[in-house]
Amino acid sequence: MNTKERIIEAAREEFTTRGFENISMRELARKARCTTGAIYGIFDGKEDLFRACVEEDIEYIKFRMDEADKNFHLPENPEEQEPYMRNHISTIITLLSELFTTYEKSLAMVLRRGEGKVYDDLMTFLWRMKYEANLAFYSKTTGGTELNDQVKLVISIMSRSTINAILAMMKKNWTVDEKKEYLSKIIGFQRAGWIYLTEKENE
Question: What is the pTM for the complete model shown?
């Protein structure tokens, strides 16, 4: 492990357990077994170091979420649309769960210890990304129906609840089977909501 890797590893541990404001560069240097000069020779400062700790993981999460939503292509055959929509919802929620679990440490750093720092608006960004994707999802499944304020609000709530539901699961010390059971309920809830919304518009 080279000096940069040792610094990032030490910083991840300290930022997560002690917080961004409660650790000095001198302490980080001691933890990483290097000098403060070595840290400043690689990073512009503590903010830049924080970014280096989380940037790759967070950007990958954003990329995968965006990619998954762009892959939604509703079949022209009406009989195939509802099964496709059900499968898409299941795929998206399962992906979110896998991403949030795989990159839990980086998310934890941002959500619990990154207030006022780079990515401190991450949850708003992820919610907005999911909201915009869901608006497009609704438009496609209803044949381009114009959205009124009530539908927009419902979609906003559903988008935020999806993100929050996965984050809530991360905080639980559940078994794999318990997580699967929980996710199946979230998927069922989202499916029911989307089917209700789209059927009402298509009546």
Answer: 0.78
What distance in Å separates the CA atoms of residue 10 and residue 87, rounded to the nearest whole number? 41
For 3, residues 6+ apart whose C-beta sits below 8 A from its C-beta are 32, 34, 38, 42
- pLDDT tier at 170, thresholds 50, 70, 90: confident
Contact (Cβ atoms closer than 8 angstroms) between residue 62 and residue 125: yes
Q: How far is Cα 47 from Cα 93, in angstroms, rounded to an integer?
A: 32
Q: What is the pLDDT of residue 145?
A: 67
Residues 6+ apart with CB under 8 A from 138: 145, 147, 151, 155, 194, 197, 198
- Contact in structure between 92 and 159 (CB atoms under 8 Å): no
Give CA–CA dist 128/57, Å, rounded: 19
